[in-house]
Amino acid sequence: MLTKRIIPCLDIKDGKTVKGINFLELRDAGDPVELGKLYAEQGADELVFLDITATVDKRKTLSELVRKVASVINIPFTVGGGVSSIEDASVLLNAGADKVSINSAAVRNPNLVDELAREFGSQFVVVAIDTKHNDTKHIVHTHGGRTPTPLETITWAKEVENRGAGEILLTSMDHDGCKQGFANELTSLISGAANIPVIASGGAGTMEHFVDTFTFGKADAALAASIFHFKEIEIPTLKNYLKSREIIVRL
Fold first, then answer.
1. Nearest in space to 159 (alpha carbons), one of 196, 211, 133
2. Which of 11, 45, 51, 220 is catalytic?
3. At what angle do helices 63-70 and 32-42 cross, to 10 degrees?
4. Separation of alpha carbons 89 and 181, rounded Å
5. Which of 45, 51, 88, 130 is labelled catalytic?
6. SS3 (DSSP) at 68
7. For an engineered disulfide with 95, which of 55, 66, 135, 192 has Cβ 3.0 to 4.6 Å away?
């Protein structure tokens, strides 16, 4: 088994870290620079920064805030929100990002995945997929989860891999913020269908939930926000627990 990664996520709105339930009811969760520094010190494997209203507000990611966070961390840093061109990605790379995450723009213009992979390499390109169960199907949503698309999640995951994405960040909107566990059945399907790493996101509430997504969900990494922001679980404690359950992690 490859080393599993623990990834805290900074959801950013108006320059502050926020967290909600099912993408709604957002509340303040702290200063992103201070949180990023804390997580790096605690042994997080990577950090994700998502400017969650950039696409809806029709603006670019907050590059100056990205620069400030990047200056206080020493772990891989993925940044997303409002990225819709090579130029946007270049700005974030120059501000200190190691990878960019694209979501709505990739659905709108799938060729963007190919273009970014050609320009920067697949390892730079993370495609974020916000998904919600609709009747019998898992459907891709855009614009911070506000807009359903005709795309089925598994089909879209395969397509972005074929176009050159290096990683998939899979967020279950049904599970987001509910702390009842990750969407392991869907995560397992995506992990089985794609040959690139899959990050499970949405639903972490206990340390056992991480064990479940790494085993049943076959996730390569697990992302969480509120349980870290509000100190319900601390990263060193989580990693020691995972090691005790024979999950390979970097201590």
1. 196
2. 11
3. 30
4. 32
5. 130
6. helix
7. 66
pLDDT tens by residue, the chain, 251 residues: 689 999 999 988 878 887 555 544 444 557 899 999 999 999 999 999 988 766 555 556 688 899 999 999 999 999 998 899 999 999 999 999 999 999 999 999 999 999 999 999 999 999 999 999 988 899 999 887 788 999 999 999 999 999 999 999 999 988 877 789 999 999 999 999 999 999 999 999 999 999 999 999 999 999 999 899 889 999 999 999 999 999 999 99
The continuous run of DSSP H or E covering 17 comes out as: strand 16-21
- Does the annotation count 51 as an active-site position? no
- Is 212 among the residues known to form the active site? no
Q: Please give the full DSSP string across 142-199, using - where no structure is assigned.
A: ETTTTEEEEEEHHHHHHHHHHHT-SEEEEEETTTTTT-S---HHHHHHHHHH-SS-EE
Provide the H-helix boundaries in the chain: 32-42, 63-70, 86-95, 104-108, 111-120, 153-163, 184-193, 207-215, 226-229, 235-244
What's the chain's Rg over C-alpha atoms? Answer: 16
Q: What are the backbone angles phi and psi of residue 225, rounded to the nearest 5°?
A: -130, -75
Beta-bridge partners for 9: 48
Q: Where do we find the tokens 């320009």?
A: 119
